[in-house]
Predict the structure.
Amino acid sequence: MQKYSLKYILQELKHYKKELIIANLIALLAVVIITPTPLLIPLLVDEVLLDKPGVVVNSVNSILGKPQESYVYVLIVLVMTIILRALFFILSVLHNWLFSIVSKNITYKIRKDLLNRISKVSLSEYENFSSGKILSLMMIDVDTVDKFLSISISRLIISILTVVAIGFVLLMIHWQLALFILLLNPFIMFLTAKIARKVSKFKKQENAKIAIFQEALGETLDLFAQVKASNQESKFVQKLTNRAKDIKNAAIEFEYKSDAASKFSFLLFLAGFEIFRAAGILVVAYSDLSIGLMLGVFGYLWVIMNPINEIINIQYAFANAKAALNRINAIYDMKLEPHYKHIKNPFSNSLTNSIELKDIYFEHDKDKPILKNINMSIKKGSKVAIVGASGSGKTTLAQIIVGFYSPTKGEISFDEINIKEIGLDVVREHAFLVLQAPTLFNDTIKFNLTFGENVDDTEIKRAIKIAQLEEFINSLPKKLDTIVGANGVKLSGGQRQRISIARMVIANPNIVILDESTSALDVQTESKLFDELSLFLKGRTTIIVAHRLSTIKQADFVYVLDKGEIIQKGVLEELLAQDGKFAQYFNRRKKR
Ligand SMILES: Nc1ncnc2c1ncn2[C@@H]1O[C@H](COP(=O)(O)OP(=O)(O)OP(=O)(O)O)[C@@H](O)[C@H]1O
Ligand SMILES: [Mg+2]
């Protein structure tokens, strides 16, 4: 994958040589067909009404052998005109279809590559982006590129061909009138395009106000419960009302201006049209142009306006696409997580693994270390607790062990195999981190337990039983098919935590990390859960992060973290007996 630019688009277009060649041949044929069409009926004015037989009448006579009644010529020409227009219709549908294939395939590829790229972005980098920003890049900006593709590659060629062909016919009809039209028309279209740009600018300003209102409204609604809880609703409503007023003021100003501008641009267009028609009549009056040909020129005026407009507007589509491609590159510029080759897999042939951390150092922002000099050696199948004050780096450390983040410095190994020979994705597959505040998909409980994978019902039942969810789920009318609401709002914090634990049981990982994952449970439920869980965790390397002494009492070994460093370690009783942070933390004093 390379950075997005117009060069990239050109390279992509090269993959569709066959389609583009066929489409352009079709376009050429379409132009050949449509060019003489507007002239046929007007020719009848001269040849039939004014009785000056020419190409049409002579051709019909030579085919049918003798002169005909007027209506025969009119009928034949009418049928021919309609057939030609129908042919043009079919060709342009075909042509558009081929070009859609090309342009939609390219935008699909851009979206696909971007999604692929996002899936490989390092999590710490991803956290700097809001989902709204990525959404708008993927939708609006890719769409802008799509628009550019469809007018540039599909219509530009046909527009140029049409203008050239009709220009040629006009020059043949009357070169002075043709020059007048061909020189003045682009100028008028340029002015109307400029005014149209103004209109869209007004609209953009109005949209910006709407976006501000929408964002504020969305946030207030999302945090509505908190706003209510702090009795701030009137303040928030006032703020939103002011934003709504901004929209009103902007809309009043922009709406009449944009309406006036678009009507003025149409006026210019019509004025040009009338000038050309007047010029046509003058040319008939003062030179040898026939009335029929003049009417033909009037017909061409309509046909030529649109292509000229498109040729002029290509510069704006071009500028928009360039800017959009630049914005899309923000996704391209996101740092990727290191890609380690899958050389060895310590997880596949073993039920559990040891973990070794050597001199781990981690920072999100430069020179602001969150973890320093972390050394740990966790034996296969042992239970280790990590304790420490809020913000000391426990969750970050857990995330590093399961491969969410890769450390800035230092080495991690499982069964003495370095993570660089295993691959972060493989680690994530076998080491499961149960979060303190898990968020759920707005889907059924079952989906949240299995992530849509095929899991045996007995397996699910067992997990639910271990996680102390049996009673709760049985009390629900729809049981496992209950929808949990956005982020799982319809469940309590503790229920969400238990779902997350059940999910871990189903995932059956080699290594389990519980990051305050039972903090929302009452002591009794928590103790019952750990009783049930102990069999599952038996012989499985487990790390428990917790604030309650009761939660970590089963740990074989404890690490105490403070400001990103390990300041104490040892077995629980020893640590409680020492006069250190650990003992202070749990309000125990050295007994002696
Ligand atoms: N994405 C981030 N960017 C910058 N700093 C971060 C980021 N995530 C966490 N931090 C910082 O890292 C430090 C450690 O956070 P961490 O979540 O690991 O603490 P913790 O020990 O788990 O705390 P708690 O007990 O409250 O869960 C905190 O000071 C926090 O502000
Ligand atoms: Mg934490």
User: Anything to note?
Assistant: The mean pLDDT is 86.
